Model the fold of this input.
Amino acid sequence: MVANRGYNSTSAKTRQRLIEAASEILDEEGYPAFTARRIASRAELKPQLVHYYFRSMEELVVTVFKRSSASYFQLHDEALSSPRPLHALWRLNCHIPEARRMLEYVALGKIYPALREEMRASGESFRALQIEAIENICRQRGIDNPPMPAAALAAMMSAVARSIVIESNVAMTMAHEELNTFVEKTLDQYDPS
Amino acid sequence: MVANRGYNSTSAKTRQRLIEAASEILDEEGYPAFTARRIASRAELKPQLVHYYFRSMEELVVTVFKRSSASYFQLHDEALSSPRPLHALWRLNCHIPEARRMLEYVALGKIYPALREEMRASGESFRALQIEAIENICRQRGIDNPPMPAAALAAMMSAVARSIVIESNVAMTMAHEELNTFVEKTLDQYDPS
DNA sequence: GCTGTCACTTGACAGGTGTACAGTCGCGCA
DNA sequence: TGCGCGACTGTACACCTGTCAAGTGACAGC
Done:
């Protein structure tokens, strides 16, 4: 008889290994390699275990995304609590592995609706935190006429970092340096050294 | 005997139909639907014709990309020749179907190296044209201290537009309006109405 | 009328995909 | 000692993927 099919034992060691392997696959080989068999093989487990611990690939990808998101939250929080929060945030945004992983999720989001919803939710909450942080900085340092609204700055930082990663993926580098310099100069107006 | 396999008859009507169908599939259903069978079925042709006219899916996707690229070049050129070139370019960048299609190519680029190379080449040439256009505007209007270097402005416009499209794909809209307003205000400094 | 060429069709291959279900093993508890 | 249950395995399904080889039919040129 088939029993519980371990969907609930969220802490089982094997389950964790699968999540870990899935995450590594995504980082190292990208979304096309995100398949039950590849992931299981990376974890040195039988492919059927994927569907023993997860109802579907969609449930797996959402689980993996949530884990990424949680660990990113830590880094994000540290950045915003550092002495120059915006520069730290910018460095985090540009951190290639994280940014690249997000691109893979974008591709997988085309296939799995539940992942899109998860991305929306987490994306909006990160953005809200950033906007709040920027507004706090302005208030604390008495910046009354910032170069741009807090929301625009937060969104621009993500946009620029993401774009640099996308273009690097196709070996495009033209104008990246200038763009990076411009962003850093802008941040200097909030976050002087 | 197998003959030429139509690889060279680049103008054949059937071949054009395949290219057209592939392009529509990409726009309407995204990269996961970019398969020989779906494309042929959309063109109401037998799937094997795809490999009669194209050596491989990679050759097809590169061909389709080049066509997109060429038609985009026209729009791009018109924008840069208009009375307010940067606003026109910005509107073009934000044009959702074009921007969304580019995202699909990014996903396909993970699979097809030749597509990546094509994207790099065309991406760099568009960027070079934009930088040149911005520098011309500065020269003509006597803008000696622009808010940012021409290269940074060109790259930022792409980055922001692309990012808005990515986020819209997952139904994220927070801060988009503010970002759009900021970009337009920046462009006003180059391109007054 | 024969031949060759071009456009296309028929049929198939090997490999990959997500997913399901019944069976087995081992360990804790009665 | 036996039972139950959770963890895992074996086997299989239906479907989809890119790609290929051979054959068919029409038409042009000799």
Notes: Chain B touches chain A at residues 30-32, 103, 106-107, 109-111, 116-117, 119-120, 123-124, 127-128, 131, 148-149, 151-152, 154-156, 158-160, 162-164, 166-167, 169-172, 174-176, 178-179, 181-182 (CB under 8 Å). Chain B has a mean pLDDT of 95.
